[in-house]
Amino acid sequence: MRLLTIRALSVVVLSIIALPAYSAGDDCLSPRLSSRGGSHHIDIISYKPWVYVTLNNSRPFHFILDAGSPFTVLNTGVPENVGFTRGPDRTFEDGFVAHTYTPKACVRTLGVTLSDINIGDIELDYVSAMEGERIDGLIGGELFQKYVVRINYMESTVDVFPATYEYKGDGIVLPIAVEGGHSFTDATLTTPDGRSVKGTFLVDTGVRMALLINGPFADRNELLLAEKRVPRTSVGWGVNGETKGDICRVHDVELGGFHLEDVMSVVSRDDVVLEQDDPLAGIIGADLLRRFRVTMDYPHNQIILETTPETYSPFVYDRSGLFLLGEGDDYRSIRVKSVIAGSPAEDAGIRGGDRLVSIDGKNAQRLGLDATRRLFRENNTRYRLVLERGGELVTAQLVTRELLETRAAVVEGSRS
Predict the structure, then answer these.
(1) Does a cis peptide bond (omega within 30 degrees of 0) precede residue 88?
(2) Do 41 and 120 fall into the same domain?
(3) Looking at residues 147-151, what average pLDDT do you find?
(4) Of all helices (H) and strands (E), which one includes residue 371?
(5) Are strands 38-41 and 157-161 parallel, antiparallel or unpaired?
(6) In the chain, how many domains are there?
(7) pLDDT tens track for 296-328
(8) Cα–Cα distance, 383 to 392 (Å, whole number)
């Protein structure tokens, strides 16, 4: 759920490292894993893996297994509910405030235990609204650095192996650099005029989109030149606010020898997810990773990608032009945050602030946000929507269409 800048995450890491040393107790022992590992069912929501986590023998909490989070972080309010005591706040030069908590945590998930874990918290309610599901926390780098973790997206399972595990199979081994709990790898993008451009990307299971490209990297390499794009539209919402970017397609993405065509991508146009002066080319996200069986092998500085029936399936983005958020205690109620100008949603007369009541007679709240988004990724499909607007019910006929083929799209020009 990496809707933080890398800089902000590093600030939180620094604050957590500075916590006093408290022990989680002698009962926080990790069970011995066999070389075959252990397999566990998980949830896949918005292409992201969700796991259940306990903290110091608490009830299970719902976390995102997030390679973009180098440490274990809880949603605001969760630490006190579990019995942690809040320590002094730390305020950094950019105004970021980090909270400290004691004691250290015994974190159990996927059949393994992480002992003496310093925890922090951060406001994740906006991220919960983006997912349509309450997020209790994020767990990632600390788990990946200690174990080898294989994510089976199609089977909705995760296998966990000891750090000594050695992969033997036909998958493609992707070298990675592991720094500060993050993993980085190189990918090559093909520009509109056929040039190959290599860049370093963060590998992030917690970003929903397939590929997020840093704006300056895209501009410097003319990735959008003479290409259709939907400019500066809302593509996410997180702790730092609304994320905006240009929606476009990259003709070819080469990753470890795999060539993926017409990859729906977002070029970042703000500092919410990636700092604009960040040297990174961008982020490889969940809509790309989910097409493989992915083994995160930080102990051996590698990721293994194995093909699945989804590997070469077409990349599809939202085809409605609606930016939707969940709301309410369970985030099941669906509200229109904004509408892309020139999109099918605007053509249907839908407005920002409308609440979605039903889709073709089906209760939208029962469908939930993830299922609703899946419906709106269908192409050339007509939906009868009932919306609540200012206390009154209104109807709309929405006909989905590829956004790059609507009035919302523009073309930037050509090389002189």
Answers:
(1) no
(2) yes
(3) 97
(4) helix 369-375
(5) antiparallel
(6) 3
(7) 999 999 999 999 999 999 999 999 999 999 999
(8) 20
CA-based radius of gyration for the chain: 21
Biggest CA pair distance of the chain: 69
Residues 36 and 72 in one domain: yes
What is the enclosing helix (H) or strand (E) of 246? Answer: strand 241-255
> What pLDDT was estimated at residue 35?
60
Residues 130 and 23 in one domain: yes
Within 147-266, residue ranges assigned H as helices are 215-220
Listed residue (35, 70, 206, 74) closest to 143, CA to CA: 70
C-alpha 190/C-alpha 183 separation (Å) is 23
CA 134-138-144 angle, to 5 degrees, is 145
The pLDDT score that the predictor gives to residue 415 is 46
Are 394 and 262 found together in one domain? no
Residue 124 lies in a domain: yes
State percent of the chain over pLDDT 70.
Answer: 88
What is residue 300's DSSP assignment? G
Phi, psi angle pair for 253, to nearest 5°: -120, 120
Instruction: Tokens 């605001």: give the residue.
Output: 76
Residue 378, phi then psi, degrees to nearest 5: -70, 145
Q: Please give the backbone phi and psi of residue 27, each rounded to the nearest 5 degrees, phi first.
A: -80, 0
Which tens digits make up the pLDDT trace of 1-35?
333 444 444 434 434 433 333 344 457 876 666 66
- Extract the tokens encoding 239: 């702790």
Q: Are residues 75 and 188 in the same domain?
A: no
Containing domain of residue 176, as a range?
A: 172-307
pTM above 0.70, yes or no: yes
313 occurs within a structural domain: no
Question: Cα–Cα distance between 49 and 290 in angstroms, integer?
Answer: 9
Q: 386 near 357, Cβ under 8 Å?
A: yes
Query: Do residues 171 and 37 make contact, with C-beta atoms less than 8 angstroms apart?
Result: no
Q: Do both 219 and 248 map to the same domain?
A: yes
**In Å, how far are 223, 247, 248, 408, 416 from 228, measured between CA atoms?**
11, 9, 6, 10, 18
Residue 54, amino acid: T
